[in-house]
Amino acid sequence: MSSAPTVDVRRAQDRAVTTTSWLNSRHSFSFGDHYDPDNTHHGVLLVNNDDIVAPASGFDTHPHRDMEIVTWVLDGSLAHRDSAGNSGVIYPGLAQRMSAGSGIMHSEKNDSATKPVHFVQMWVAPDETGIDPSYQQHEIGDLRGLVPIASGRPRQDAAIAIHNRSAALYAARLEPDAAVELPAAPYLHLFAARGQVNVEGTGDLAEGDAVRFTESDGQRVTAAAPSEILVWEMHTALGR
User: Fold this and answer.
1) Residue 101: domain span
2) Known binder of ligand: residue 108?
3) Quick check: is 239 in a domain?
4) Total domains in the fold of the chain
């Protein structure tokens, strides 16, 4: 645990960006060619990529290893296929997790030939390396309130499971003036995926802004516009 609470606001415009003919990817942490030794992770969260992929385009088959990868679609649909024989289409309100484990190959393609797909992909370090690769997806009906999307926390029900006992991901869709209370945790990451929210004691967040808390104590988040937030609750950090 950290010795004193901290609140680190990261603005959308300060993120590194990867741009190609078919991809606009904005990185909350070091990723790919964008390496900053002072911005490699928070808690056990190593990647929070905010991606827009053009129609009929996407990531060709590529490898991953020893990572819990959670994908959350905001608009459009994303088709997944991997070397373990798993396939599926991810759309808003459907949670997906791929455990890369001992090694897996997969592709992610925009499932539409006419509309872009917008999604957030998050990578969390697993508790153990070399596990069998696996895949899970589950539809979530109601996102009013802070809903557990993915979790490895003991005795916590979530739509999908991850192989990290210290971490849980929540999502909420908020209408104007609706509010939720953040979990109290040694490490917390709040990402404003859409809209605009106000964080108690911190101020306003616009779309793409994030806050990294240590020793968070349950701050209140209130929507100023129709909004969607993603929240990681983490009870340890890498190397702890």
Assistant:
1) 6-234
2) yes
3) no
4) 1
DSSP-derived secondary structure for 183-223 = PEEEEEEEEEEESEEEETTTEEEETT-EEEEEEEE--EEEE
Q: Is position 103 within any domain? A: yes
Answer for the pair 223, 231: CB distance below 8 angstroms, yes or no.
Answer: no
pLDDT tens readout for residues 92-118: 999 999 999 999 999 999 999 999 999
Tell me, what DSSP letter sits at residue 183? P
Q: Does the pLDDT of residue 1 top 50, yes or no?
A: no
The answer to whether 62 is annotated as binding is yes
User: Nearest CA to 167 among 182, 186, 140, 144?
Assistant: 186
Q: What CATH number does the domain containing 111 carry? A: 2.60.120.10
AA identity, residue 233: E
pTM of structure: 0.96
Length, in residues, of the chain = 240
Closest C-alpha to 179, from 195, 200, 158: 200
68 occurs within a structural domain: yes
